[in-house]
Structure to design on (686 residues):
């Protein structure tokens, strides 16, 4: 666990790296899943708009956090980036390191998988129970013919050491490890091909509270050492805030606000972001008892139809007529918000 | 607390497994006062759920064994009660909400059928009375158009709505005790806030005492009066919620509080993670179960299990370390 304790300049590392050429650019990404309503025969075909026009970029060495509630499209966005969504269902552009990777066949995508890797939510389901840890971590190296076969074992042990696993456990099976250790195995496997971008889909949500911090610290430490970029997806605002340089807030398949992490906390512009922040419990009873919550009415509307105006209009506490008619564009320079009524000039201080 | 509604005394629950005996609950004692909200915090496997299942006679036996202890509800021992008497209390006086509203409701029965079953059984309502009452309860938990929704099946409700149905069902006999096992864990943040508000409000109007089982310290901070912290089947600390967060007396509690990132904090040093892994309950560590992960460990901790004793914050703690003048107190100041 040496990794967990040694990062004195964390504050510096957190600052957004200089705007260079983006490593990943996503432009107007849409993923629409068709479905049949009312049984096979009388079926009327509809469309679930899981992701409905998402654009963002990730710079080298940067962590972009995506937050939102279940069904908002954050995981589908991640899967589309690594080509785990069938190409006929998606539109828009995805550029990795300047090259378009959207709609590539699995074979054509393969070389790009050296650049972008993924860590999954469930460390129990994402490791093959019949393979030893050593062979799990070595498999990506074999696929890309990295290192001489003889050196691979050494490389695997180095990786295990890097992520805080005992390298002598090489020949053990996943079931012999705890949840947090398994997540470390998943991280080591992702690192095996020396990627530059790792998509982390809820990587700590399945872990116990005391283990979450270990894994978060590990990810931060690895980013500093290896210059990695992360797309970090989570429903846990506190975790996203801690690890991200910039944060995108998703609602009903769209990004409704995107800003620097601290800026988003101090000056949330979109009413959904404000509600989300005010709903997140803070482990401080004194603070909690005096906090004013924005309790949203109702629930997220179904993504199976197109809404004429702002997707949040049905629950928004400050909704006006225009919101129901015109989709607000995501705009505002460094601090983007998609809201007709966002006061971009003076407001300061978040809710709570 | 002479007027305790529920007194649990030295509860032990074991599970026989192929690999040996697991002492899931290992001497847990606590009291619940009328109308209070008691939080039970701990990680998976700490015994928080099993403790409460045991109170309601819901530990599957075998492989479970309620090996020792008492759980007095108004002078009657729940652990030694015959099934007939227990069924009169379960759902009527002590109700439970489960974590997963998807699996806790019967998919073959309408919500109305499930809601009315409770009151027809316990309150001897007629079909018509029960239906009226069920509609009332659905309205109370904020389900729109309850007159028509009552005939819907669970799959026609969203996750948040299903949890509301569960709450309506649990509260429909006005129980004195509500046990809520991770009631908001499966829910989204904004729906979680709605649900917690609802529980708080219903508690205020009905005077129900609540046992809230959770792993989220944020949830504890926002709704609980008093907190038990469980580790490896034992209570390691108990205190009023304010005292627990301000002056944690057990290194595990302190570690938990320090390891979680806070949304409202600008400082971004590395998180102070608790080292090591949760204990293997088949072979728990000797002495204090937390000693292999404890930053303040003493020689004594490795051999002798500390008793749960009065602590300076007015609650109880099970730890050998003299906290008040140790670095623990200093570290407590974030």
């Amino acid at each position: 666990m040496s990794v967990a304790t040694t990062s004195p300049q964390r504050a510096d590392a957190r600052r957004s790296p200089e705007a260079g050429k983006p490593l990943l650019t996503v432009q107007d990404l849409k993923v629409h899943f068709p479905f049949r309503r009312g049984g096979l025969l009388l079926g009327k075909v509809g469309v679930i708009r899981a992701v409905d026009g998402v654009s963002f970029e990730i710079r080298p060495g940067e962590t972009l956090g995506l937050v939102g509630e279940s069904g908002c499209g954050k995981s589908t966005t991640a899967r589309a980036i690594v080509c785990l969504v069938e190409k006929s269902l998606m539109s828009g552009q995805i550029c990795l390191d300047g090259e378009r990777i959207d709609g590539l066949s699995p074979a054509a995508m393969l070389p790009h998988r050296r650049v972008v890797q993924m860590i999954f939510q469930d460390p129990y389901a994402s490791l093959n129970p019949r393979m030893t840890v050593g062979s799990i971590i070595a498999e990506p190296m074999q696929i890309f013919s990295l290192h001489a076969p003889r050196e691979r074992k050494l490389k695997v042990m180095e990786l295990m050491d890097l992520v805080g696993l005992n390298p002598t456990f090489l020949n053990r099976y996943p079931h012999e490890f705890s949840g947090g250790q398994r997540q470390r195995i998943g991280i080591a496997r992702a690192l095996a091909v020396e990627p530059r971008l790792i998509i982390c889909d809820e990587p700590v949500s399945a872990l116990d509270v005391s283990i979450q911090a270990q894994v978060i610290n590990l990810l931060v430490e690895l980013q500093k050492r290896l210059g990695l970029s992360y797309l970090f997806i989570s429903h846990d605002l506190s975790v996203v805030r801690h690890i991200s340089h910039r944060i995108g807030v998703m609602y009903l398949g769209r990004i409704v606000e995107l800003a620097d992490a601290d800026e988003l906390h101090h000056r949330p512009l979109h009413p959904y972001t404000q509600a989300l922040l005010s709903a997140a419990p803070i482990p401080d009873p004194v603070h909690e008892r005096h906090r004013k919550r924005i309790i949203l009415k109702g629930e997220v509307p179904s993504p199976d139809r197109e809404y004429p105006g702002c997707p949040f209009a049905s629950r928004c506490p400050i909704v006006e007529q225009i919101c129901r008619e015109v989709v607000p564009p995501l705009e505002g320079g460094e601090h983007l918000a998609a809201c007709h009524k966002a006061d971009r000039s003076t407001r300061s201080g978040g809710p709570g | 607390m002479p007027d305790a509604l529920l007194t649990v005394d030295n509860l032990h629950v074991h599970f026989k497994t192929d690999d040996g005996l697991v002492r899931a609950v290992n001497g847990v004692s606590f009291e619940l006062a009328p109308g209070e909200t008691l939080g039970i915090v701990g990680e998976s496997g700490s015994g928080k759920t099993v403790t409460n299942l045991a109170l309601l006679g819901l530990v599957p036996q075998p492989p479970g064994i309620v090996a020792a202890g008492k759980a007095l509800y108004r002078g009657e021992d729940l652990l030694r009660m015959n099934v007939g008497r227990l069924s009169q209390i379960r759902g009527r006086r002590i109700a439970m909400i489960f974590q997963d509203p998807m699996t806790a409701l019967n998919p073959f029965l309408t919500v109305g059928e499930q809601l009315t079953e409770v009151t027809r059984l316990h309150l001897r309502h007629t079909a018509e009375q029960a239906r009226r009452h069920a509609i009332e309860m659905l309205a109370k938990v904020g389900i729109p158009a309850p007159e028509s929704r009552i005939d819907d099946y669970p799959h026609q409700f969203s996750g948040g709505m299903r949890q509301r149905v569960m709450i309506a069902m649990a509260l429909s006999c006005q129980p004195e005790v509500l046990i809520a096992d991770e009631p908001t864990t499966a829910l989204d943040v904004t729906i979680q806030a709605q649900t917690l508000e609802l529980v708080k409000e219903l508690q205020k109007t009905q005077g129900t005492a609540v046992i809230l089982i959770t792993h989220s310290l944020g949830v504890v901070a926002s709704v609980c009066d008093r907190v038990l912290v469980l580790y490896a089947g034992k209570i390691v600390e108990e205190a009023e919620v304010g005292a627990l967060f301000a002056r944690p007396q057990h290194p595990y509690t302190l570690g938990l509080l320090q390891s979680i990132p806070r949304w409202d904090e600008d400082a971004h040093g590395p998180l102070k993670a608790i080292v090591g892994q949760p204990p293997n309950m088949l072979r728990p560590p000797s002495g204090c179960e937390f000693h292999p992960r404890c930053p303040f460990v003493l020689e004594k901790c490795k051999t002798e299990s500390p008793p749960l004793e009065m602590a300076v914050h007015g609650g109880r703690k099970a730890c050998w370390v003299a906290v008040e003048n140790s670095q623990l107190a200093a570290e407590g100041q974030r």
User: Anything to note?
Assistant: The radius of gyration of chain B is 21 Å.
